[in-house]
Design brief:
- With 229 residues, the protein is mainly α.
- It is built from seven helices and no strands.
- It has one domain.
- It is globular, with a radius of gyration of 18 Å.
- The C terminus is likely disordered.
């Protein structure tokens, strides 16, 4: 962890608070001016895409990261582009995955960030901006009632996560990469630290994901709640 960043410091807390506040402000604006919904969604998707492309370009040209490490196979990468797609299409399966993977995975990445460079650098800025935009996008979609996760979407998201994780594990084994930390824990403090050694922390994280996904489904358990678009 860089020396200029401390978990739950005033700056870290300010970043965490700014994310739901921004989503709430966008939601308020859309409810007041419903015609702005599409423009807001497209703008958020465009910002996500711009942040993503800048992130990959920075890692390639500045940090010298090459194939296969440059591939967007981390869970946050998948959630990132799923959220952009959900904002543009409102497709229900994409929304399910963006909600569960994005909020749970990126939320954890924001609470216990794995920063490789000091806070004032471009990489750290893009890290927080990208994850923040992802969560803002998902919260905005749901709070503005343009869409919501389907019933039992938590089960769908968990099974797709396991299939995706199995595919990434095979790729890690063949290429020697460590996407999704399936071969080794991150160097910084994280939830994995309390889940035991390899491979037990992977099984523990899978169970934690199942519980989180189920809890995240609870606000959407009613079959009668209407969704306005």
């Amino acid at each position: 962890m860089p020396a200029d960043f401390h978990l739950l410091s005033p700056l870290h807390l300010a970043i965490l608070i700014a994310i739901p506040v921004t989503a709430a402000l966008l939601t308020f604006a859309t409810r007041k001016y419903p015609s702005s919904a599409l423009a807001t969604r497209v703008s958020l998707a465009a910002l996500l895409a711009a942040d993503g492309f800048i992130w990959y370009a920075y890692r390639y040209y500045v940090q010298g990261v090459r194939f296969p490490d440059l591939l967007p196979l981390e869970l946050c990468d998948a959630s990132f582009w799923l959220t952009a797609a959900a904002l543009l299409t409102l497709e229900e399966h994409t929304v399910d995955l963006a909600y569960h993977w994005g909020i749970a995975g990126s939320g954890m990445a924001l609470l216990t960030p794995y920063l490789r460079t000091p806070l004032h650098t471009v990489q750290s800025f893009l890290y927080f901006t990208g994850l923040g935009l992802l969560i803002i996008g998902v919260l905005y979609l749901i709070w503005s009632r343009q869409t919501r996760p389907r019933l039992r979407s938590w089960w769908f998201a968990w099974w797709v996560l396991n299939v995706y994780g199995a595919a990434v594990a095979v790729f890690d084994f063949l290429s020697g990469t460590n996407f999704m930390y399936l071969r080794q824990k991150p160097m910084s403090s994280s939830l994995f630290d309390i889940l035991g050694p390899w491979p037990w922390y992977i099984l523990g994280a899978d169970l934690v994901a199942l519980v989180l996904f189920r809890l995240m489904q609870l606000p959407f358990s009613s079959r009668t709640e209407a969704v306005s678009s």
